[in-house]
């Protein structure tokens, strides 16, 4: 997310919001809104997961249209080139992911986050940085774990159903996000071993703020 002051407390939603997160993934079907503009409020990252500079992984996004609440979903940032300060509310255009190769590849990675924040900062950092490399090519060099994830994605993304994945295009009016249905991509057992090479990264912020 856009610049979130590093000295702020570990950000986060209240315990009540945390306890209800598991429901957010299925509270809203965005398919009827494809091509339409909706209002999106991006909440602070309840997990506090970060790569040392920016928040990574899932956060809650609340949607409304013409002042009427639509529901909430877990979403992830796929836009490295724009910044926001959370909580932030702005308009986005809902776009289908299916049929767009780049978006499908991003969504495949996003599905690996699961349906709620995992707490696995090392793995989520690898996934998030791979996603950010689409909007900012070469921003993050690939470590061994990221290379493994990339190889897996390229071998499998074309066989996944993206009907439950949507791109939330903010243009230059905010930061674009994506929502996915993680069920098509089961978590490989080997994922437990990924990301171990950067476990200490989260404690060494390179900047004075975090960004999604």
From TrEMBL:
Would the keyword Signal be found if you checked this record's keyword annotation?
yes
Q: What positions does the domain Ice-binding protein C-terminal occupy?
A: 184-207
Q: What InterPro entries does the record tag this protein with?
A: Ice-binding_C (IPR013424)
- Provide this UniProt record's keywords sorted from A to Z: Signal
Out of the domains of life, which is the source? Bacteria
Stretches assigned to coiled coil: none
Pfam families hit by this protein: PEP-CTERM
Specify the signal sequence span.
Answer: 1-25
Q: Which NCBIfam families match?
A: PEP_CTERM
Protein name per the record: PEP-CTERM sorting domain-containing protein
């Amino acid at each position: 997310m856009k610049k979130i002051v590093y000295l702020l407390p570990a950000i986060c939603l209240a315990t009540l919001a945390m306890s209800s997160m598991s429901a957010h993934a299925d509270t809203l079907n965005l398919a009827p809104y494809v091509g339409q503009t909706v209002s999106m409020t991006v909440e602070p990252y309840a997990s506090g997961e970060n790569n040392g500079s920016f928040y990574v992984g899932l956060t809650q996004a609340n949607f409304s249209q013409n002042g009427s609440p639509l529901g909430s979903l877990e979403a992830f940032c796929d836009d490295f080139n724009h910044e926001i300060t959370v909580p932030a509310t702005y308009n986005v255009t809902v776009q289908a992911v299916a049929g767009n190769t780049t978006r499908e590849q991003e969504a495949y990675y996003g599905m690996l986050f699961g349906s709620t924040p995992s707490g696995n900062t090392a793995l989520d950092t690898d996934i998030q940085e791979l996603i950010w490399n689409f909007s900012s090519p070469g921003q993050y060099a690939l470590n061994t774990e990221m290379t493994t994830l990339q190889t897996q994605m390229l071998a499998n993304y074309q066989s996944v159903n993206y009907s439950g994945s949507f791109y939330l295009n903010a243009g230059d009016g905010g930061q674009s996000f994506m929502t996915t249905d993680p069920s098509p991509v089961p978590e490989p057992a080997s994922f437990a071993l990924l990301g171990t090479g950067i476990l200490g990264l989260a404690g060494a912020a390179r900047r004075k703020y975090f960004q999604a």
